[in-house]
Write a structure and sequence with these properties.
Helices cover 48% and strands 15% of the residues. The protein is an alpha/beta fold. α3 packs parallel to α6, α4 packs across α5 and α6 packs across α7. The radius of gyration is 23 Å and the shape is globular.
């Protein structure tokens, strides 16, 4: 099975090398790994390997990094004598956080081949390895187990449909036997792991709640965006995909069209309608040039790109398109409502970021795998929809009933507050004498 797994990884690497001829993201993935080991070798030359422990953290992408960031920074505070190595699998994480100042070395994770795992672990020689949420790279896990290096998973989450718990999951389950401890998000995950024979499982919750709470407490300001907003309400469409935009764009055109009609006729809109006082910020999941053009053309309305926003043009359109990565989590502070993308595709994106600001959220029907989404739908802080008509109805309902909106907003804030503390629980485990 290990040989078959390694063959699949080899094929995956070959496919990405071919894709690099056509895809900018794949190109970055390949290019970032070319000088990876030279970079590590250069870094370790200035380190006393006998006296300086190294803690290795791995995040698949930017979202997982933000989820694990509180733990990284807690280790930096409590273990200042250690060096921290941070690896990413995806360019969307590495390119944004390659200068992260709480890590001593930030690099890509080598392709999970036995020779790469052996060389990487030998060079870095970590005293422990921490994987954030998932990314089960079995050759790396095997190498860490061979060298008896403790391995931890933080904010892990398991579901019954996961391949680990299927009849064909025997070999992957066996590879997890070398993990020292799983810090999981919920009791269902612990129960699944216990039933599979793993007792080294601790329920700590989701560290992402600690991260979004910190973002809300240390929020940055964006003067140009504040000028764009003026005194109007903001509807943010965050991490959207084309499937989400098929639902959103007809309604946005209706709202902007109503605003233009009222300006031409000099009439006032019904107070229950959000149109005249609503501006839109659209932050797609993919901020590549092609996607930004698709959004502008799909809306067929005056738009401004964030990269082109100035004090001279900030009032020329009611739609701002975010064409950079890394600021969306902070922009939710300006939102009245937020639509979160991914619910019409493979998976819902981060809803904790707007929720921590007390912003009620809307999303598509594919949210059942996400505990925070199912909780907030049940509690009244989130609303799910399947069509433009449902989007229109939900917005009108929240606009026309201030008390309903107030309760939804309070529900969101309370939910984040009640679910904080996972980082401290994890650090308490490490502080114990083990």
């Amino acid at each position: 099975m290990k040989a078959l797994y390694t063959l699949v990884i080899c094929c995956y690497g070959l496919i990405l090398n071919i894709a690099a001829l056509f895809s900018d993201k794949a190109r970055k993935w390949v290019a970032g790994r070319r000088s990876l080991f030279s970079k590590i070798e250069q870094w370790i030359q200035g380190i006393d390997r006998e006296r300086t422990p190294v803690i290795w953290f791995h995040a698949s992408s930017l979202g997982e990094f933000e989820q694990g960031r509180p733990v990284i920074e807690a280790f930096r505070e409590t273990r200042p004598e250690c060096k921290i190595v941070l690896t990413f699998f995806s360019p969307s994480g590495y390119e944004i956080r390659k200068n992260y100042d709480q890590a001593d070395l930030v690099t890509y994770l080598p392709l999970d081949l036995p020779r790469n795992a052996r060389r990487f672990v030998e060079l870095v020689n970590p005293s422990m390895a921490v994987f954030i949420k998932y990314d089960f790279w079995f050759n790396f896990l095997s190498e860490l187990a061979t060298r008896r290096i403790p391995v931890f998973y933080v904010s892990a989450m398991f579901r019954p449909a996961h391949y680990f718990f299927k009849w064909y999951g025997f070999w992957p389950r066996k590879q997890l036997r070398g993990v020292t401890r799983f810090f999981v998000q919920d009791h269902e995950s612990r129960k699944l792991m216990n039933n599979a024979g793993f007792e080294n499982v601790t329920v700590t919750g989701d560290t992402r709640f600690d991260r979004v709470f910190a973002i809300a407490k240390q929020k940055k300001t964006f003067p140009l965006i504040e000028n764009f907003i003026g005194n109007q309400q903001v509807f943010i469409c965050g991490s959207t995909w084309p499937a989400d935009e098929k639902i959103l764009f007809p309604w946005i055109r209706e709202v902007i069209g109503e605003r233009q009609h009222n300006q031409i006729t000099g009439t006032s809109a019904d107070d229950r309608q959000p149109g005249p006082g609503l501006k839109f910020i659209i932050a797609p999941h993919d901020t590549g040039e092609q996607r930004i053009r698709e959004i502008s053309e799909g809306l067929n309305l005056p738009c401004i790109r964030y990269s082109e926003l100035t004090v001279e043009n900030d009032k020329t359109a009611g739609i701002l398109i975010i064409d950079v990565i890394g600021i969306l989590s902070q922009l939710y502070q300006y939102a009245w409502l937020a639509f979160i993308g991914g619910g019409f595709g493979s998976g819902l994106h981060n809803i904790q970021e707007p929720v921590t600001f007390g912003v009620p959220v809307l999303f598509g029907p594919g949210y059942q795998k996400f505990r925070e989404a199912t909780d907030l739908v049940r509690l009244g802080g989130a609303f799910t929809l399947s069509a433009t008509s449902e989007l229109r109805h939900t917005v009108e309902k929240l606009t026309g009933d201030p008390e309903l909106y107030r309760k939804a907003s309070a529900c969101c804030r309370n939910y984040v507050d009640e679910n904080r503390g996972a980082t401290e629980k994890i650090m308490q485990w490490f502080r114990q004498d083990r």
